[in-house]
Amino acid sequence: MLVVGAGCAGMRAAIEAFDAGADVALLSKLHPTRSHSGAAEGGISAALGNASEDDPAAHAFDTVKGSDYLGDQDAIEILCGEGPAEVYRLERWGAVFSRDERGRIAQRPFGGAGRPRTAYAADITGHVLVQTLYEQVVKRGIRVYEEYFAWKLVEDGGRCVGVVAWDLLRGGLVGISAKAVVLATGGLGRLYAGSTNAYACTGEGMAMALHAGVPLKDMEMVQFHPTTLAGTGILISEACRGEGGFLVNRDGERFLARYAPEAMELASRDVIARAVQTEIDEGRGLDGNVLLDLRHLGAERILERLHGTRELAITFAGVDPIFEPIPVRPGAHYQMGGIDTDVHGRTALEGLYAAGEAACVSVHGANRLGGNALLETLVFGRRAGADAAESARRARGGDVPEAAVRDADAELRALLGRSEGERPWRLREELAESMRENVGVFRREEQMERELEIVEELRDRYRRVVVEDKGDVFNTDLTQALELGALIELARCVVVAALARRESRGAHARPHDYPERDDAGYLRHTLVTLAGDAPEVDWKPVTITRWQPAVRAY
Amino acid sequence: MRVALKIWRVGADGRALREYEVDAPEQATLLDVLDLVKDRCDGTLAYRKSCRMMICGSCGMRMDGAAVLACGVRMRDLVAAGRVPVISAMGNLPVVKDLVVDMEPFWAKYRAVNPHLQPAGGAAADGREPEVAPERLSAIHKESLCINCGACVSECDAMSSDPDFLGPQALAKAMRFVGDPRDGARRARLEAVNGKNGIWQCTRCYFCNERCPKGVDPRDAIAKLGAESIAEGIDRDPGARHARWFVRSAVTTGWLREAELVPRTQGLAASLRQVRFAARLARAGKLPPPLPPHAAERVVEARRLRDLLAGQGREGYRGIVQGERALGRIVRGHVEALDRDPYGPGSFPRPWLPGARAGAEEAEETAGGGR
Amino acid sequence: MKRVAYYKGCLASLSAKELDTSTKALAPKVGLELVELEAVTCCGAGDIHEAEPDFALHLNARILSYASATGADTLLTVCNVCTLNLRQANWQLVGDAALRARVNENLVAVGVPAYERDVDVRHLLWEVAEGDGYERLKAAAHRGLKGLRVAPFYGCQILRPSRLLGFEDPDRPASLERIIAACGGEAVDYPAKLRCCGFPIVSAREETALGELVQPIEQAVEAGADAMVTPCPLCHLSLDAWQTKLKETTGRDFRMPVLHLSQLIGVAAGLRESELRFRRHLVDVQPVVERLEG
Questions:
Q1: Which of C59, C106, C198 lies closest to B308 in CB terms?
Q2: A264 vs B368: CB contact, 8 Å cut-off?
């Protein structure tokens, strides 16, 4: 059994599979602790009931509402129901969660949550979880194919039989056979300029699944985090607001009173991102930013709970939040959509699973609550790992055929063989800038149509990019070119899905042409598949268990 | 701004220093500049990167011989000072290509300290978390900041002399578990770091503290391990005996009893082998006779202090942790002035709520859930 | 004259007595009036900090308190390790009122005055590398070093951790070079100038220590230096006394004379052998003396 991607979801899946007796290996283009899960800051939500009375049903409702009713409620109930057990397990494995005065795991308020239920480790929760999970991987001696770039899924006889990957350290393609494959490759933030995401977040897993005929669900649902640093897109955690920080415009006005008067800074992220963007667009921003003011929290609190944020603000924005507000603006942050899976992580292709940000179960629907991403990696990482292990146990199995590796190699040689052409960085920049411009926080039909054209042109130019490094050893010039290929494919999916959804829901905002949510017409997921060479949109109903769609106000 | 730098290119055909020049934005980091070089000058340049926000630990490399995270180095001041930095791979690790090192020796040492929690008790009956006082866990806060970037290892002087030294990263990781109240393998962990290549091989050069981009302070973690080892009675190593002799000196003569230091540290047999060297020292007057004892005044105060401290709850590593609050506030030689008024003249105005402009106090209620 | 509390530390008291004699003779020439502290102990080096850190903090607090009691504002040190230890203890007390209260309570309980009035811990190096001390240094170094090529060896703990020491850029320090130039010498650069001499582990892990020690000495020789200078008596012991051991391990007789900072300035300021006490070194300093006299 092979787990592709070694962030929180991947490592959790591999651990579960190992403990179930499977012969499992992890594969990642990065060393596991470099995975972007480690950049998560604010916390992991679960109904532990330490900071207030709480129960999984309340957490589930908040999540459903947060998803703007596009989330599948059976999956959400599982997410919230299994949450506490996962948090306790991570704690038992050694995660250094911050504690309250009674010595129990502390929980802070977070966006869209009716009660404080986000457990945290100062503001480096992701880092702590990644470290803890890696320690457990090492403890078990789980094999890691480290710095292998997974490029293609291999299908044989209607089943996924493995991957073809490029060995970054030594060079060359290898076929790795597996009776079950779990894709836990994370998101695609790098599709957008000003994203919070690491360079590594280029969505190959989604692209691999797409090419293997597996549908991608809700691809238009890209979350824009409301508070990122200008220029770099570096994330300024929601924990700042959870601890009581204020968002103000250039005049010092807490403008959220006009958009989300009840929840204010703790409304859902899409509501806040739109509010922030509107303030900026209407001229009440400061150099294209609004301001996150933490001064009233005091030096002690900031040093104790938001130390990491302070370091980032000082290093990358030249601002000490103890004395000055931090200039922030929205940036692409998280992909709610992804590889279509069921609640066991299964996809349409037998033997292929997905978990974490790469997957879309869907637990986040049209908007994700803070703290639920880390939770999803553990709950569904575990479930996918368990089910995949079982599937691998039962499968007859097959090997990655020689031909698959040969064909991939030929494709690679063609790319490497080019001595003239455009350098990939131009396409990368044009793609990212245009996506931010045309498929950003606020979307218009004409702009999205224009983006489709731009992407088509880029697809064409991509066929002529040149890789300068022809060598075998650590050839990131090559892998970055392959990543660009994946991003261009995924861009098409995002845009066609965005065009197809003729309403505003959650993070998908079309205030000019379709400003309202349309449950009659669009209480359903988009599904993008490749028909020949072009993406096609189909639909899938939303699973409703307990909560009928209602007006969503914060 | 125009940025020039030199990079040590390393490959199958050897090493070469190449100079590059690119146009970069004002706020560019070293990593941004490397990206520009790779994209626009030479696509064969190899280096690791991912998060660009100093949390993944990928981009460790040397700038002018000192390890840094490329994504955390702002180029503007360097450029303004006219410097042309020399970029090379991290030290103490084999180079794979250009700025990429083989991290396997690093990970091998990480694995060598059994870096996973070995819970002291079983799970609680209700499956919930055990109660742990916040101070107990915040005592290992610094050690848990480590992002495995390798900057400390790169500059470790002891390791450059003996590559088998466990090193600052592994030892800090060991302390993260020794200090974790939930861990049940404390004694075994301490025994494990008291071996030949353990804590007593640290040369105390403080390069690790200086270079760590996250404030882990591995040297302090090593000192904490020493304090815990000696408190546990794990003190057979010459390094431990050396340290204990300083304590003994302080409470007897006040000044270090130098003449007896070597025999006390290495034992009589080993000292006898050093007799010729000792004679050389003695001839130069550098081996002061133990008698009459060179004592400072009122040494009894030191003795009384030591007795007084026993039982005050700051034994072992707690004696170091207690000072971290204050030390955390020092920035390059002065205490951070964190108590000045953030709303003083010239500062950004206080936030206000629409419709409550006059009521500035109202605007300061906490947001959201606690509102 | 600037009145300073003088903490000489263990080595200057015993095996490095030449450091003490040269410092005392030099002090008035660079405007320093030394008030020697008698009721003090070893600062603990890195050792008590590693064995019983709470005790180490208190020992240093006691030294700070007695220094403060002299009425001087500055506690002058002549050793890197003492400087770091005392400064580190000082920062902890100055930055944490509750910790200071606890430590003071303990001090008072054993008959030591509480540490109330802050003092600043400064190495002699810092006193003469800039400002008033530097001007006096230039005036005092009248005999000059006559172009003597001197390789500076800083020693770890006067530079790192730079947050706590804070005097100069730890990667590009210039104080020793300034002083060498002001005394009429020529500073020699070499890669291991800022690295470790290995002394802290020379007893417990001699092989590792010697592997470190050989670097600066070998490089200084290759760079054509006539002598080395260091502000730390532990480094001095390593570079001088243990240099003779390198002959056994490397087969090379380096014969590189090593001077304490106070001796280097002292010889340029015309101090006599009875004050400089070069004869206490294991590596003969006579070649340097002859060069300067000839």
A1: C106
A2: yes
User: Is-catalytic flag, A254?
Assistant: no
Contact across the interface for B223 and C205, Cβ inside 8 Å: no
Residues of chain A with pLDDT under 70: none
pLDDT at B334: 83
Cβ–Cβ of B49/A199 closer than 8 Å? yes
Ranges in chain C, pLDDT < 50: none
Query: Which of A269, A382, A443, A510 is labelled catalytic?
Result: A269
Chain C and chain A touch, per 3+ beta carbon pairs within 8 A: no
Residue C130: inside a domain, yes or no?
Answer: no
Q: Is residue B264 part of a domain?
A: no
What 3-state DSSP class applies to B87? Answer: strand
From A398's Cα to the closest Cα of chain B, the distance in A is 32
Work out the mean pLDDT of chain B and round it to a whole number.
Answer: 92
Q: Determine the Cα angle at B197 with ends B196 and B202, to 5°.
A: 115
Question: Distances in Å between the alpha carbon of A319 and those of A323, A327, B75?
Answer: 8, 9, 17
Asked if C121 has any chain B CB less than 8 Å from its own CB, the reply is no
**Res B359: pLDDT:** 45
Query: What is d(CA C184, CA C292) in angstroms, rounded to the nearest whole number?
Result: 11
Based on the fold, state whether residues A206 and A233 are members of the same structural domain: no
On whether residue C94 sits in a domain, the answer given is: yes
The C-alpha R_g of chain C, in whole angstroms, comes to 19
Q: Is the pTM of this model over 0.80?
A: yes
CB B255 within 8 A of CB C47: no
Does B347 sit within 8 Å of A102, measured CB to CB?
Answer: no
Residue A394 and residue A407 in one domain: no
Q: Are residues A101 and A88 in the same domain?
A: yes
Specify whether C211 is located in the same domain as C86: no
ipTM: 0.96
Tell me which chain C residue has its CA closest to the CA of residue B159: C208
Residue B350 lies in a domain: no
Total domains, chain C: 2
d(CA C194, CA C129): 17
For residue A463, the domain's CATH number is 1.20.58.100
Q: Which residue of A has its CA nearest to B55?
A: A39
The CATH number of residue C114's host domain is 1.20.1050.140
Query: Do residues A353 and A341 lie in contact, with contact meaning Cβ atoms separated by under 8 Å?
Result: yes
Report yes or no: B311 at the A interface, CB cutoff 8 Å: no
- Binary contact (B200, C201; C-beta < 8 A): yes
Torsion sign, CA atoms B88, B92, B97, B99: negative
The pLDDT value recorded for residue B358 is 47
B-facing residues of A in 13-72 (CB < 8 A) are 30-31, 33-36, 38-39, 48
On whether the CB atoms of residues A474 and B46 are closer than 8 A, the answer is: yes
Residue C246: CATH number of its domain? 3.40.50.11810
Q: What is the CATH number of the domain that holds B31?
A: 3.10.20.30
- Which residue range(s) make up the domain with B48? 2-101
Inspect the interface and report whether the beta carbons of B343 and A241 lie closer than 8 Å.
no
Nearest-Cα distance to chain A for B235, in Å, is 28
pLDDT at B367: 44
Q: Are B178 and B114 in contact (CB under 8 A)?
A: no
Peptide bond into C28 cis (omega under 30): no
Are both B78 and B111 inside the same structural domain?
A: no
The ranges of chain B with pLDDT < 70 are 123, 356-371
